[in-house]
Amino acid sequence: MRTLVGTLVAILSALFTIGISAAQGGASEAASRSLIGALNGAGLESIATPDPTDPGAFVAALHIKGGQLLVVRARHPSVGALSARLSARQFRDAYMDLQATPTPQGKVFVMDSGANGLPSDADPPANVDVVYKDGTRQTIFNGARARKLTDDVYLKELHDADVEYTRLLNVLQSAIAAEAFARKGAQFQ
Predict the structure, then answer these.
(1) Cα 27 to Cα 149: distance, rounded to the nearest angstrom
(2) Farthest-apart Cα atoms in the chain, separation
(3) Distance (Å, whole) CA 63 – CA 61
């Protein structure tokens, strides 16, 4: 029981630290590293969970080792079916369902091409990341000059995207932590 409480305290402490760094610029870098570590530690390549800020919406991620971290947040017309997939730990299927949702309003899709968070400045990054909103509005993060924007305009877009992406990564990190906690608790019963 003591180990279980210690694990919970460590998880909450890590999430608190990530939350504090989310208030600063470029927080998705640490959050993506943390999520990938948690996925690897749990032996998962994907995770999905309800979005706690929006009933009926879900968040899912698929990590392609050595390449990309793909994160989607969307509503799905069959909340019951998606919830059943989560209960059955069919996270990759839930991810695919969210990608294919016919409900584009409020959908966010992040292609983190280096699996290293969104870039933190206006210079051209090593990996180009793309964020889609409402299923169609595309924002490419490949540097302010490449997009012919001022640094201020580019950095504002980048900051807004980074805050939302970090939030989604933290939601997914919490889901992995909760699942690990539930599995450990089940072992002690």
Answers:
(1) 22
(2) 60
(3) 7
Structure tokens of 112? 């983190």
pTM of the full structure:
0.83
Alpha-carbon distance of 137 to 164, in angstroms, equals 15
51 torsion bin: left (phi>0), alpha (psi -120 to 50), beta (else): beta
Element (H, E) at 138: strand 137-141
Give the structural domain span for 144: 2-187
Counted domains in the chain: 1
What is the token pair recorded at 71? 């994160």
**Structural element, H or E, at residue 72:** strand 68-75
pLDDT at 39: 96
Cα 121 to Cα 76, 125, 149, 183, distances in angstroms: 34, 8, 13, 40
For residue 123, give the 3-state DSSP assignment.
Answer: coil
Instruction: Name the pLDDT band for 184 (thresholds 50, 70, 90).
Output: low
